[in-house]
Amino acid sequence: MSRIGMVDLDVDDKEIQNMFAAVTAMLGRVPNSYRTLALAPLVAKMLVPFNATIQREGAGSILTSKLKEMVIIKTSHLNQCNY
After folding, report:
1. What CA dihedral angle connects 42, 43, 49 and 52, to 10 degrees?
2. Which of the four, 12, 15, 63, 69, has the lowest number of CB atoms within 10 Å?
3. pLDDT tens, residue by residue, 18-48
4. Is 8 a domain residue?
């Protein structure tokens, strides 16, 4: 059981549904972190585009997606995370 709740994927709020649709288009699913982030829709509206810029090539980023993913995996490994 999580200590912080998560928003259901079938929520009635249109803004949150739009955010979930954007995240699904970007990642192919809605991770639990975004379901938790949906508890603060204003923060989510700002963080989703920022996260897309950070994780994908282009949009002002000079690093490749491959290098970014390697950093994520290495950081997770160093922190003994199962991700």
Report:
1. -150
2. 12
3. 989 988 988 889 988 889 989 998 888 888 8
4. no
